[in-house]
Amino acid sequence: MENELENNLSFKDKLQNILKSNQKKIVIILLIVLLVISGVAYKNYSQNLKHYQISEKYIKAGIYLTQNKKEESKKIYKEIVLSNNNFYSPLALNNLIDNNLEQNEIEILKLFETIEKLKVDKEQKNLFKIKKALYLISILKKDEGNKLLEEIISENSVWKNVAIEIKE
Q1: What is the pTM of this model?
Q2: Residues contacting 89, CB < 8 A, separation 6+
Q3: pLDDT mean values, one per 10 residues, the chain (168 residues)
Q4: How far apart are CA 71 and CA 84, in angstroms?
Q5: What residue spans define the domains of the chain?
Q6: What is the rounded CA–CA span in Å between residue 128 and residue 90?
C-alpha cells in the first residue's frame, strides 16, 4: 500500500515537473489552438454576414422591381450575380432574364459564365446549362442551345428528360 502511494506521488511529481519544464510550449500550443478557433469563428461570422447582406440586396432589388425602378433593380441584380453567391446569384440572373431587365445578349451570356463558375454540384450545373440553352434558343441561337442540351442528355443527367422535351 505504501508502494502505491509512493508511485502515485512520484507520478504526480513527475507530471508537475513535466508541466513546469514545458510551460512555455504548453502556453504556445494553447494560444495557437485559441487563434485557430477564433479564426474559424470569424470566418464563419464573416460568411454569414456576407450572405445576409446579399439577401438584403436581393430583397431591395425585388422592391425596386415592383416599384418599376428597373435600372436600380438591374444594377443590384447584376451585383448579386457577380458576388458568386451559390444561392442568390442564379436567382438574380433569373430575375434579370425573366423581367427583361438586361437587353444586351452578350452581357447576359457573360453573367451565365459567372454562374457556371460557381462551386455547386454537377446537377445544379446542368440546371444552369438548361437555363442557358433556353435563353440561347429564345435569342435565336438554336444550335448553341441544342449543343448544351445534347451535353446534358449525353451525361445521363437527372435533367435528361427535360432536355429531351426542350429539344423536341
Answers
A1: 0.74
A2: 80, 81, 82, 83, 114, 115, 118
A3: 55 80 87 94 93 95 95 95 93 93 91 91 89 90 89 88 85
A4: 21
A5: 2-119
A6: 8
